[in-house]
Amino acid sequence: MVNVIKHPLITHKLTQMRKAETGTKDFRQNLDEIAGLMAYEITRDLPLKPVRVTTPVAPCDTYELAKPIILVPILRAGLGMVNGICTLIPIAKVAHIGLYRDEQTLQPHTYFEKYPKNIKDATVIIVDPMLATGGSAIAAIDMVKKQGAQDIRLANLVAAPEGVQAVEEAHPDVDIYLAALDDHLDAHGYIVPGLGDCGDRIFGTK
Ligand code: PRP
Ligand code: URA
């Protein structure tokens, strides 16, 4: 399932990020804010379990989250979405997957992985602003599945149709959440119109 999250605030903030003249500070801040807004939608169907608590007035039969939540940013650019989501889900644990895309072959290369213990029982949300060829996302999903993850969601800011199709073919069980589905990939594997190199724009590199 692909869910393009439509909200005027997300659209406005993403427009600021797309502008070539937007600097590091505003780019980072808008990404942080969009990630928080997306988190609301990504977590809409999380399972709840019944609990009884005692309010200052009386016992109360209510609900709380049934499963732990693990966020998995794909380094580097995925880091830009962590704070925004953790603001909404402060109980989330955070794994890290280090991947970079070879600029010539566009193939993903892994350089780091670190996971919390309970990944098998958790809702795992992989975050990366860009879904281009899909190679990095597919590799990250392969990696969390190897750790035992069963309930996996993928959250991207901007995707190309080619990347969405590749992820859906490789991992049809993973739901994809996007802020925008763009037009196509260019010859260098960049999303068009996209927003350029997201990692470089977040961290002010290159
Ligand atoms: C970017 C982006 C994704 C990947 C998407 O990362 O953040 O991880 O490319 O491309 P794909 O769908 O074709 O795999 P990059 O490799 O540039 O690394 P960085 O985040 O360290 O800049
Ligand atoms: N990675 C990016 O940062 N931007 C793109 O357009 C494609 C991959």
UniProtKB/TrEMBL annotation:
Main EC class the enzyme belongs to: transferase
What is this enzyme's EC?
2.4.2.9
Q: How is its activity regulated?
A: Allosterically activated by GTP.
Please give the catalytic activity noted in the UniProt record: UMP + diphosphate = 5-phospho-alpha-D-ribose 1-diphosphate + uracil
Annotated uracil binding sites: 191, 196-198
Q: Which cofactor does it need?
A: Mg(2+)
Q: Which Pfam families match?
A: UPRTase
The note on cofactor binding and number reads: Binds 1 Mg(2+) ion per subunit. The magnesium is bound as Mg-PRPP.
A single Gene Ontology molecular function, please? uracil phosphoribosyltransferase activity
**Residue ranges constituting the Phosphoribosyltransferase domain according to the UniProt record:** 4-205
Q: Which residues bind 5-phospho-alpha-D-ribose 1-diphosphate?
A: 76, 101, 128-136, 197
Keyword Nucleotide-binding attributed: yes
* Keyword tags: Allosteric enzyme, Glycosyltransferase, GTP-binding, Magnesium, Nucleotide-binding, Transferase
- The source's domain of life comes to Bacteria
Q: Does the keyword Nucleotide-binding apply?
A: yes
Please name the HAMAP family in this protein's record: Upp_B
Q: Which family does it belong to?
A: Belongs to the UPRTase family.
Q: What does this protein do?
A: Catalyzes the conversion of uracil and 5-phospho-alpha-D-ribose 1-diphosphate (PRPP) to UMP and diphosphate.
Report the protein name in the record. Uracil phosphoribosyltransferase
Q: Which organism is it from?
A: Amedibacillus dolichus
Gene transcribed to yield this protein: upp
